[in-house]
Every structure is written in structure tokens, then in C-alpha cells.
Amino acid sequence: MVxxxxxxxxxxxxSWRWLDMAARWLVPFIxxxxxxFILGMxxxxxxxxxxxxxxxxxxxxxxxxxxxASLPAPLVALTGLLLDMxxxxxxxxxxxxxxxxxxxxxxxxxxxxPSRFLWVWAGFAVLATACASLSWxxxxxxxxxxxxAFPILCECxxxxxxxxxxxIMLIRAHRGxxxxxxT
Amino acid sequence: MVRLxxxxxQVLSRLTLxxxxxxxxxxxxxxxxxxxxSDFLSNGLDDVLAPAYMLVSGPIxxxxxxTGAVGHLFTLNAENAQLxxxxxxxxQWQEVAxxxxxxxxxxxxxLHFVPPPAPKFFxxxxxxxxxxxxxxxxxxxxxxxxxxxxxxxxxxxxxGRGLAGRVIDVGSRAARVLLITDINSRIPVAIGAQGAPALxxxxxxxxxxxxxxxxxxxPAEGAMVLTSAQAGAFPPGLPVGVVHYNSENQPMxxxxxxxxxxxxLRLFSYPNELSxxxxxxxxxxxxxxxxxxxxxxxxxxxxxxxx
Lengths: 183, 307
Fold this sequence. Notes:
The complex is a heterodimer of chains A (about 180) and B (about 300). Chain A is built from 8 helices and no strands. By secondary structure, chain A is mainly alpha-helical. Chain B is about 40% helix and about 25% strand. Chain B contains 5 helices and 12 strands. Chain B has helices at about 5-35, 35-75, 75-110, 280-285, 295-300, and strands spanning about 120-130, 135-140, 155-160, 165-170, 175-180, 185-190, 195-200, 210, 225, 240-245, 250-255, 265-270.
């Protein structure tokens, strides 16, 4: 009796299909966390800590553009809080910055998704620069004086330079393990 | 599962982002108002992350050493010859050191010198390179807490060669060490044989700069930089680095510690050395649950920094 009340589409899906769908839905967030974890390993790369916020920015931008449902605002906020706790920045600052980045990306989504990759890249360059500049302002406010802007400049250039490589990786994930099945 | 009508779901999905934004802004305010919250959270995260990093760092190191061994095979002969040369030289220095040690002991004996109390220390593996654009810190595994882990706050971290930093946060499994290159690091140092006082200031670059040195005794290029007991935060005489003038004629310190590739750190706790001038007196650090030097760091007390 109970079974017959459910809609037909739901009744037909066995449990492993639900699991599969959930896994595919979670891939973007898991990739994001895994990347942040790996970037914390002591590889001895100079300025390694710098890669963490720029990786997060790239991921949030990419998934907000192509699969906003997979990286909803609460997960973005969680990522930001993790970044703050790892990087000893004031708690919540990166959460706010990443949410602003997501809001801006969702606003531009209509224009960016159909356009060429060069425009998408330019969009990321502008948004990442804005985000990094805001983080510099916050750091300056916390330190009661301007902190050197050079590291932020490096971060911006690295973010812009590395975005195509990140995008290639994420596009593979988007088409492969994270792809939604159309059945 | 609750079934919602489509318009309601649309409204909810539109409201998620603004709501989260407001929540996060509230978190920023809470974090600023009560540093204990963010310390508690980041300590908890460090404790969770430390074993995870420990698990993965083993294989990485094995691969590193494995490839290193293959790489070394090609230069084995040349390296052997170099090592023999070095060994000969070091043996000579050993004799000099032994003679000086004997002389030192004799002089101390004749002066009735009271040796400083030996600090407690233990060695921890650096498992993660954490930090941000404006922070330089590493995560060090600490042995399972025997007693109160908060005793370690303020412990001096040294690698095999010199001073690397200071412990700012301690959890039950891991300690976070703020490196001397961090923008908040201020360390009183003594330069050269005269022990001319100066302040070593981290500038986010690889080499910290020297400030507040006396114009009567400017730091000489190549002079040894040791920690100074001024302000009581550090024990005197720990090796830090060597003075070097950069192209802008600014004296800086080339750290002896290999800060970009830290593998092991020794954490020395000097319980009696910390005076009232340290940001968190040892007693307060022991009593206060969330008290740590990180409070001070995050609060951005730029003037005080962490002596």
C-alpha cells in the first residue's frame, strides 16, 4: 500500500541508483576538499599556502558557472570557513568572499556560459582579482595598516595563469565522474 | 521526505545565498568579538587533520627518498670524494671544538658559573604546511598529551640548525608553529660577538629584516644573529641566522633553519623563562581553556606582536 502511493519515477529507482546520484552530486565538493587537503602537504613549494585560496576561488567559479546545484551556498560557506581555519585569517572572511564570488558568478552566468572560453577566463580574472583585493583590504584592516600588496599581486597572477589548467581538470571531472545521468 | 511546492522551492533556493552571506557576516562578527571560538575551531580542525596528514606523509616521504636514492647513484663517486674532504675538515674542527669545550668548562668552573636549567623538549614531525597569503605556519605532530598540552604554548621551535618559530596553538595531537618569517613575528635578537640588540621582524618574504639596531653598532655583514633574552620571551643564545645586506642596503637575517622544507622540529618549552611581558603569561595559558598566542596574532595587535 505504502509503495503504491509513491510516484512512479521514485518507485523505480533502486537504492544503489540513489547512492550513485548522490555521489555524482557530491563530486565537486569532494574535489574541492581533496584539493585543499593536498595543498597542505609539505611539498616544500615556495608560497604553497597561496595556492589554497586560489584553488578554492577557481572551483567555486567553475562549478557555480556550470553546475550551481552541486555547490550550493552552504557548502561554499563551509569551504570558506575551512580556508579561514587553515590559513589563520579572521574567521568567516573567506566564507564571505567566496559567497560574494559565487553571487557574482551566478549573476554573470547567463552571459558567460554560452560564450567562448576566453571570456570565461577573463570573467574569472576580474572576479578573482576583486576577491583577492578584498582579502588584502581585510588583512590590512586587521593589521591596522597596509600589508604588502606583492603577495596578493602574485596570487592574482597565479590564479589567472593557472585557471585554464584547473578548468581542463574540472571539465574532465564534469564530464566524467560528476556527470549527471540523463535517463 | 518533505515535498515542497515548486514556487516555494524556487523562493528557498533564491534565498539560500543571501541567508548564508548574512550568516557568514555574523560569523565574522562573532569571530572578532570572541577569539576563543575561532581558536577552538581551528584547534579542533588541526587535531583532526594531523593524523590524516600523518597517514599520507609517510608514503610521500618514501617516494621522495626512493627517487633520491636512484638519483644519488649517478653522483655517488663525486659525492663520496666530497664527503671525504668534508670529513677531514670536520675532524679538524672537532678537535678545535673539543679543545674549546674543555677550555669553556675550565673557565666556567673557575667562575662558579651556574648553568641555566635544561629545557624540556621533544621532536615532532612537520606534517602540514599551513598558512595563508599573510601567514607562515606549519603543523607539528605532538605526542599524546601527557598532562596539559597548553604548557607547550610559546615553546621555541628549532630545526637541526636554527630557530624556526614559536608554538602559537596547541591541540591534543598537533601544535601550530608560527614561523619567524610570518608578518607578525617579532623576535629580540643579539648580533655578533658584542651581542648588539636589535629586533628581527618577519616580512612575509624568505628572510626577516632587522630593525631598531643601534646606529653605534650597525649589524656587520656576515655577523651571527642569536636570540636575546630581552623581554624574557626567548632564552638567550639560540642560533637564528646570519646578517646580510640586501640591494636596498637593508640588513636582513638569512635564517639557518631550512624554513621552506621543514621536516622535523624540536619544541623546547622553557616554563620559567616566560616573563610577564609575553602576551600570554604561562599561568594564564595553563588556566584559560582557549587562551593562546594565536588570539593575540589574529586580533592583530600589531604593536605588541609576539615577544
